[in-house]
TrEMBL record:
Top-level lineage group: Bacteria
Molecular function, one GO term: nucleic acid binding
Keyword Calcium among UniProt keywords: no
UniProt xrefs under PROSITE patterns: ATP_CONE
Record key words, sorted: ATP-binding, Nucleotide-binding
Protein name: ATP-cone domain-containing protein
KW ATP-binding (keyword) present: yes
All residue ranges annotated as the ATP-cone domain in the record: 5-110
InterPro entries named in the record: ATP-cone_dom (IPR005144), NERD (IPR011528), Restrct_endonuc-II-like (IPR011335), tRNA_endonuc-like_dom_sf (IPR011856)
Length: 280
């Protein structure tokens, strides 16, 4: 393989093709070694100078979908599946709330209006743990190549300080108050620097090294229903409209699967894919 082939990232930047990055992404999705080697050979046959990362991932997904292990496509396409929760950011907020609840946070609420010292603020997610009060901004992007930039951190911090001022004026006795940014994309370096300086938490795609968004979803099996390649997009949107966001929600309510206007073999495929995601 000629390592000098440059590919185009979603941001428009160019970088050399990396077999190691492809292998890492495949292994992370739990794809077995025997299929991994086949995928690498397949994609390297398709490479050409200037190929986009989105085209590379499309080739990988299509190859996995046609293989003897088609359900691995669901876990491999996690990042794309999260973006497909939009255009509204509300399903992403529900995903974040579910993750926090599983991590021991209590009184987790979404879409809360809090009065600040100056104005009122709509808070995406509010959570409590031990003596800590957390105000969480869920920054959702539904297009590849976008990053959460420092303007978001500045905006979140300003709102947090206004609410904190009101709480202190009311004699609030919580020992800890903290602003928290949750995003489904990567963050700019300035976001990380500003957050560290201001004592804010950040959970993003690939950040921090431990308990980043991808890791939280995979370790807790909090896969969104948009991961399911066997489920038609029309039904995904219908379920999201009913606040059914997680594959585990679909698993818990078998009547939802039975109500799908698809054939019995297609329903069986959906159930098989659900079992793979939640039990693998």
């Amino acid at each position: 393989m000629n390592s000098t082939i440059n590919i185009i990232k979603a941001t428009g930047e160019r970088e050399p093709y990396s077999r190691e990055k492809i292998i890492y992404s495949i292994k992370r999705a739990g794809i077995p070694d025997v299929l991994r080697d086949q995928v690498v050979r397949h994609i390297e046959e398709k490479l050409f100078p200037g190929i986009s990362t989105s085209e590379i991932y499309r080739h990988i997904s299509e190859f996995i979908g046609r293989s003897a292990h088609p359900y691995y496509e669901a876990s491999y396409n996690l990042k794309r599946a999260i973006m497909e929760l939009g255009p509204s950011g509300f399903p992403f907020e529900q995903l974040v709330a579910a993750i926090l609840s599983s991590k021991g946070y209590r009184d987790v609420q979404t879409n809360v209006t809090l009065q600040g010292k100056c104005v009122s603020h709509e808070i995406d997610v509010l959570a409590v743990k031990n003596e800590g009060h957390y105000l969480i901004e869920c920054k959702f992007h539904n297009q590849p190549g976008l990053r959460t930039d420092v303007k978001v951190a500045l905006y979140v911090d300003a709102r947090f300080q206004d609410v904190l001022s009101a709480w202190k004026a009311e004699g609030d006795r919580h020992k800890l108050h903290q602003a928290w940014i949750f995003t489904n994309t990567k963050c700019s370096k300035d976001v990380i620097s500003y957050a560290n300086c201001r004592g804010m938490k950040v959970t993003a795609w690939g950040y921090p090294d431990k308990d980043n968004l991808q890791e939280l979803i995979e370790s807790g099996k909090y896969y969104p229903i948009t991961c399911l390649v066997s489920l038609p997009n029309f039904f995904k949107q219908k379920l999201l409209a009913q606040n059914i966001v997680l594959v585990s929600d679909l698993k818990a309510n078998k009547n939802l699967i039975k109500s799908l206007s698809v054939s019995d073999p297609e329903k069986a495929k959906v159930e098989q894919e659900i079992n793979y995601l939640l039990n693998s």
